[in-house]
Structure formats: C-alpha cells, structure tokens
Amino acid sequence: MFRVCGSRLLAAHVSLPQNGVDLPAPPRHQLGCLLLTEDAAALTTRLEHNGYLRPLPERDAGWVPGDRTLFPDGFAGARIIAFDHEQFVSSGQGGFRVWCPVDARNATARFVPALEAWRRGGARSLACGCGGTHDLTALTYRPDCGFAKEWLEFSDVGAAELVAPDALLEGVRVIWRRG
Ligand SMILES: [Zn+2]
C-alpha cells in the first residue's frame, strides 16, 4: 500500500508543471567518443578483428563491445557516421577556443567567419593576425575539434580514456563529445 501511494505521488510530482513552468528536460551529459578517420569501415574491421568490437546481428546496426576493453568503463554502442562532404566536428560543448599554429595567438574571433565561409564553398583557411594563412585543420582547438567525412561514433563511454594500442588507431583523430 505504501509503495503504491509513493509511486503515485512521484508520478504526479514529475508530470505537473512547477510554478506554471514545465520542468526542464534532464541534462544531456552522456559522453561520446568520435574516431575521425579516412576509412571508418577499415577502422571497424581492425577493431573487430582484434576483439574490441562485436557486430550486431542486424545489418548496418553497428557494434557493441567485444571481448577486449576499448574504454575502461565500457561503451553502449558504436556506429559509422558518413557524409558526402567534409564536416567540421566539434566537441559539442560550445565555447571552444582556437589558436594560431605559428605564434599561438588567439584566433577564435577570426575562426567563426572563416568556418562559415568554408561552409559556403570557400577555401578551408583562415587569414590570421600573424600575417599567415592557415588551413583550418592546422589550428589548435580546445576542446579538440576536427574535419572529416566519416568517423566511428561510440555512445555513452564511461570516461574520456581510450586504451587501444596506438597501432590500431594510427591516423585516427579522437574527439570527445558531451550530450
Ligand atoms: Zn597565425
């Protein structure tokens, strides 16, 4: 009897607006890991053959953890994301900052218009305050960002730590993403 009352009270409390304002959605705080690569299919094959990934039975459904540990606290699933055109891949946290690769000056203010120009079909470059012109991929980003047409996306990894041998991840850029 007590348990029934308790659950009814809880349900009513959660579904009713507070002070006339709808309750905010729960914060999205899952951590994801993106492995940017020239060839995501080849990367998944390497990880699968080495026991880090196990394919789901349905075709194209993705992968789940294999017998070996890729992230110390595991992950929920993995899938390939692919686009026809190169994408700017950010951490999803906003507020990232950008620095010149030559003299480490802050180039954040120049970066946003440069990125927008590139997305409109312009060159993938930034006219920097140092006097040079830098490829956007040459800039230093914090949190780290990257450019890629395809990547392997891991959802709900426990912590921002990857433990696979370097040889398996050669040529791969690692982006951690919240949300
Ligand atoms: Zn510069």
List keywords for this structure.
179 residues, alpha+beta, four-stranded antiparallel beta sheet, two-stranded antiparallel sheet, 3 helices, 10 strands, 20% helix, 30% strand, elongated, binds zinc ion
The number of strands is 10
Radius of gyration: 21 Å
Please outline the major beta sheet: 4 strands, antiparallel
The backbone outline, from C-alpha atoms, is elongated
Question: Which percent range describes the beta-strand content?
Answer: 25-35%
Strand order of the largest sheet: 4-9-1-10
Question: What is the averaged pLDDT score?
Answer: 84
H-E string: HEHEEEEHEEEEE
Give the % helix: 10-25%
Outline the fold blueprint:
Layout: H1 2-15, E1 31-36, H2 40-49, E2 53-55, E3 63-65, E4 77-89, E5 97-99, H3 108-119, E6 125-127, E7 133-135, E8 140-142, E9 146-155, E10 173-178
Antiparallel strand pairs: 1-9, 1-10, 2-3, 4-9, 5-8, 6-7
